[in-house]
Design a protein that fits this description.
heterotrimer, A alpha+beta, B mainly alpha, C mainly alpha, A: alpha+beta, D-Maltodextrin-Binding Protein, domain 2, 2 domains, 6-stranded mixed sheet, 3-stranded antiparallel sheet, 17 helices, 11 strands, C: mainly alpha, MetI-like fold, two-stranded antiparallel ribbon
Chain lengths: 434, 287, 315
């Protein structure tokens, strides 16, 4: 219920379940319900959670120490886990009315968490949370129905990741910048012929790659009002395109594609079975220890008329719980993570390239290794791309998996692209209606 | 009577050799994946997933030093202590509460015994994902989130019907004369439980203890949901922290951590499995 | 002593032997023993179960209050969701493969180890070792490596990879469960310990051979434990989650071939946020498992032997 006024500190929409439990179990209740909000020394205690790896954890801890030094009256308790576990943990906490004060959110969570009344409207804390240094189009991705429920922390974009060393050895010229999908396909075909094995990951399973392809034709995954932005014909064309590439051996066979689990280690490129992959720029750094220093980024193919399909996607958001007793302190923490030069120095590109434009330029010089590669890659795209779409509707996280599952039916040749596409459209419509 | 093999039969040598040969061959197959696990924990990053060779091309000990550094400023020692605390509490809880409930179901008569027993069995049939959120709300209301109570308290309340049922089956296998004899000696139900039935159910109790320890140790989801502060994390939770699909994963250290996390349960099993042999409840049931 | 064996429930009123404590006290004792279980069952089991039953009749997205939709989740499941039926087929196939294989292997190994004089502890530990691991992510990765194209199994048998072929992946997952047969094996061993050695001695004197002893002593005496393992492994097989979740990285692939029931339930509840639908799935599963278990209990009357029930002719 997006329009519902959210009173800070009160248990709002989700308290029904709590109430149901209480009624059923009157004997055992009356105990301390809400989490402790002040520490032993009378400090304000904020719980802050994010997902990531141990490196991000170490850097975040350091930044938090700095924050606590600057704000001695606030104590931040942090916690983190891997992305998949994080999603389930946060959903359980939020459903139980126990969401952490400050949380890291994905693009796909915003709509659901905002409309479910989990998130606090950060627009009410404009005095402490400065957003004027963030690109307006990027900032808007954290807004639902005109309310700023979350603020993006970094941005990423998709890329064709390739191993330049192996590529060069084939004698095929390296990608030179802009290319269209058919140029990309031709190049991959030549590579596959030269090496005698598939050159790239089959992009048919990826909803992200499909979105880039779709945007290259001036369409979008979802319409403004959260309906599907494409038809079964569009999807049939995409899957026919990738299916043909798969059949002729240009992209990976079903047996390899099905092993994708989101980690770079399990991509054909990471396994040393292909030369190129389509991936997000930040995780692409994981290819370096696997395939060596030759890892390079090329832009995503554009539409046949040159319309760019890729966009700067807000990679991680920060939001404050609607139930938090300390929304102002929460907003203060977000402001610190986004806008504080000291924090930016510590955090580097651990949550991808900073969104604060001044800080982005300031930190650019200190970036090393693959962070540098990502920064340079993003700089070449600056000003070339169209605005990102608004946050996807809440059904999208389920549809992402549905997309993969339906394409499995195509790549294992159990359905034609047309049948699978029509299946997907039916499932997607049902998902978005509910 | 130390073994069930009839003493009168002459041991046939070839038979024993064949038995051992068969067992060893089976073991070779069984332990191959474990060898793979240990070998992978020593592989360099580019071979962990991509290589289909058992042995690493060179030994990458840094996987272990990374794993031993712990996660997020929490040392491996701390993680280990936390895991031990939870698993230890769970063992005590399960053995106590499940044997109590099992005794009532197996040896005592009371109203609604049949329906209650059926209900107890039914509680294991509902997939736990469906009750995860209501349970979370209850523990949240009790102020127990981010403590070890949600992981230990249920064990003291015999919520794991698996073990109640297990001990019931063992207790029902004991002849009734045992309690009759005890009753004649003046034992009430409490004393005959403690002095007669419990000692004879030792194999089942040891089994309960071993399984509880191992399963609690490996239980990822419950620990994930209820523990918030990293200093309360367990080895099993820390293990997953090395893998994050959205950023860079460290599979090598994860494998190393898996091997480290395996050692305590191996030791626990080795220490307690002996009691399964020594239990020999049967020797007491001479009637 | 035979009169004291008659269960309280069937004893005619007023004929309780004088030396026995009054019935009320004995009943009271039972409730004392049961009290922790009753408390746990009411608060931690019954209550959440009641909530999930209610949710199964609602549309509930975890965040907004649930709205009552009557039987819609159930009708949708049975009539409009082909993926649901694929998950049913996958689960039944899995149960049919994994349960007999795992129990058979556990029983054979337990029997082989039972008579062993030397090395018993070693073998038991070694055979149990795989079960120590659970279905962790690392073992899933090992499994994927072994059953992949060019992996050990491919090299040995030339079958190609298993985990990446729709017809074979389920078998690879089932083998992961079978491989971890330690739990039923240890339970079988514990049960074998309880069989009084005198029974075998007596049979030996009567001239019964090994096979005869196995059929007339081991099987009946072990039957409560066999029954326990059968019921529990069947229930657990219907609920199989972790091995498939780990091996297929949560997707149940390839092409939905290992999308087991609870995996799909998890997917609906926590990935797609349709907790109402997931709850309905959970209750359908409960009813199906309940029916199967009830059937097993019914057949058990003809083949499971309880020492405590037969002494003194209580039944």
């Amino acid at each position: 219920m997006p329009g519902m006024p959210v009173v800070p500190g009160s248990r709002t929409t989700r308290s029904w379940l709590t109430a149901a439990v209480l009624v059923l179990c009157a004997a055992l209740t009356g105990c301390s319900g809400s989490a402790e909000t002040s520490g032993s020394s009378g400090k304000v205690v904020l719980r802050y959670t994010w997902w990531g790896n141990p490196d991000r954890a170490a850097r975040t801890e350091q930044a938090i120490e700095l924050f606590e030094k600057e704000h001695p009256d606030i104590e931040v308790q942090t916690s983190f886990s891997g992305y998949d576990s994080y999603k389930q943990k946060l959903a359980t906490q939020a459903a139980g009315g126990d969401a952490p004060d400050v949380m890291q959110l994905d693009y796909r969570m915003i709509e659901q968490y905002a409309s479910g009344g989990v998130l606090y409207d950060l627009g009410r804390q404009k005095s402490v949370l400065r957003t004027d240094e963030i690109d307006a189009g990027l900032l808007a991705t954290g807004a639902v129905d005109g309310k700023q429920y979350a603020v993006p922390q970094g941005r990423g974009t998709e890329a064709v990741v390739y191993d330049a060393k192996t590529w060069r050895a084939t004698g095929v010229p390296l990608p030179s910048g802009d290319w269209t999908w058919s140029e990309w396909a031709d190049t991959m075909r030549t590579l596959a012929q030269k090496t005698g094995r598939p050159a790239a990951t089959d992009p048919g399973q990826s909803e992200d790659a499909f979105e880039v392809w779709l945007r290259g034709q001036g369409k979008s995954l979802y319409t403004e009002d959260g309906k599907l932005g494409f038809t079964a014909d569009d999807l049939t064309r995409w899957w026919t395109f990738t299916d043909e590439l798969r059949r002729e051996g240009t992209v990976s066979p079903a047996e390899q594609t099905t092993q994708l689990d989101g980690t770079v280690e399990n991509t054909p490129l990471g396994r040393g079975k292909a030369i190129a992959d389509i991936n997000w720029d930040a995780p692409a750094s994981g290819f370096v220890p696997l395939v060596g220093e030759g890892v390079t980024l090329a832009p995503m193919p554009s539409g046949e008329d040159g319309t760019p399909g890729q966009y700067f996607k807000p990679s991680m958001f920060m939001g404050v719980s609607a139930d938090s007793g300390h929304p102002e302190e929460g907003a203060l923490l977000i402001d610190f993570m986004l806008n504080d030069p000291g924090a930016a120095k510590i955090l580097g590109a651990t949550r991808s390239i900073p969104v604060n434009e001044t800080l982005r330029e300031e930190t650019a010089g200190s970036l090393t290794d693959f962070d540098r590669t990502i920064h340079d890659f993003q700089t070449t795209l600056e000003g070339e791309l169209n605005d990102p779409p608004q946050a996807p509707p809440s059904g999208d996280s389920a549809l992402q998996t549905t997309f993969q599952r339906d394409y499995d039916q195509v790549s294992y040749e159990r359905m034609s692209p047309r049948e699978a596409a029509e299946n997907y459209i039916t499932e997607a419509k049902a998902e978005l209606r509910s | 009577m130390t073994t069930a093999t009839p003493a009168v039969r002459k041991p046939v040598a070839w038979r024993r050799v064949a038995l051992h040969a068969g067992c060893l061959a089976a073991l070779l197959v069984m332990l191959y994946p474990l060898a793979w696990l240990v070998a992978t924990s020593l592989k360099p990053a580019d071979e962990v997933i991509a290589s289909l060779q058992l042995l690493p091309s060179r030994l990458e000990w840094s996987n272990y030093s990374t794993a031993l550094d712990g996660v997020n400023d929490v040392s491996v020692g701390r993680l280990l202590t936390n895991s031990l605390l939870i698993a230890g509490g769970a063992v005590v809880g399960n053995v106590l509460s499940c044997s109590l409930a099992a005794y009532a179901f197996a040896r005592l008569r009371f109203r609604f015994r049949g329906p209650l027993f059926a209900f107890m069995i039914a509680t294991i049939m509902l997939p736990h994902h469906a009750v995860l959120i209501p349970q979370y709300i209850i523990f949240n209301q009790l102020g127990m989130v981010n403590t070890y109570w949600p992981l230990i308290l249920p064990k003291f309340l015999a919520t794991e019907a698996f073990f109640v049922f297990l001990i019931v089956q063992f207790m029902r296998g004991l002849p009734r004369e045992l309690e009759e004899a005890a009753r004649i000696d003046g034992c009430g139900p409490f004393r005959s439980f403690l002095l007669v039935i419990l000692p004879l159910t030792r194999p089942a109790l040891i089994t309960t203890a071993i399984f509880t320890f191992i399963w609690t140790w490996n239980d990822f989801f419950t620990q994930l949901i209820y523990l918030f502060s990293p200093e309360k994390f367990t080895l099993t939770l820390a293990l997953r922290a090395f893998v994050d699909a959205s950023s860079q994963s460290s599979f090598g250290p994860m494998f190393a951590m898996s091997v480290i996390a395996l050692l305590p349960i191996v030791l626990f099993f080795l220490a307690f499995q002996r009691f399964l042999v020594e239990g020999m409840a049967s020797s007491g049931v001479k009637g | 002593m035979t009169t004291t064996q008659i269960p309280t429930a069937v004893r005619p009123k007023g004929v309780a032997p004088a030396h026995k404590p009054p019935r009320r006290r004995r009943e009271g004792a039972a409730w004392v023993f049961l009290s922790p279980w009753v408390l746990g069952a009411c608060v931690l089991t019954l209550l959440p179960m009641a909530v999930s039953l209610y949710l199964s009749f609602t549309d509930y997205d975890l965040f907004n209050p649930p709205s009552w939709v009557g039987l819609r989740n159930y009708t949708q499941m049975f009539t409009e969701d082909p993926r649901y039926w694929r998950s049913v087929v996958a689960t039944l196939t899995y149960v049919a493969i994994a349960v007999p294989l795992q129990l058979g292997l556990a029983l054979v190994v337990a029997l082989a180890l039972k008579g062993m004089k030397r090395g018993k502890g070693f073998y038991r530990s070694a055979f149990y070792a795989p079960s120590l691991l659970g279905a962790s992510m690392s073992i899933a990765l090992v499994w994927r490596a072994i059953f992949n194209d060019g992996g050990t199994v491919d090299n040995l048998f030339g079958t190609g990879g298993w985990v990446n072929k729709p017809g074979w992946a389920l078998l690879a997952v089932a083998l992961l469960t079978v491989w971890q047969f330690g739990a039923p094996m240890v339970i079988f061993l514990a049960g074998l310990q309880q069989i009084p050695g005198e029974l075998y001695e007596a049979a030996e004197v009567d001239g019964a051979g090994r096979w005869r002893q196995f059929l007339s002593i081991t099987v009946p005496m072990l039957s409560p434990v066999i029954f326990f393992n059968l019921v529990l492994q069947t229930i657990q097989a219907f609920q199989v989650f972790t091995p498939a979740f780990a091996v297929s990285a949560g997707k149940g692939g390839p092409a939905d071939s290992t999308l087991f029931y609870t995996l799909y339930l998890y997917d609906r509840g926590f990935v797609a946020s349709h907790m109402g639908y997931a709850s309905a799935m959970a209750w359908v599963l409960l009813i199906v498992i309940g029916a199967v278990t009830a059937l097993l209990f019914r057949t058990s009357r003809s083949w499971v032997f309880y020492a405590s029930d037969t002494d003194g002719g209580a039944r």
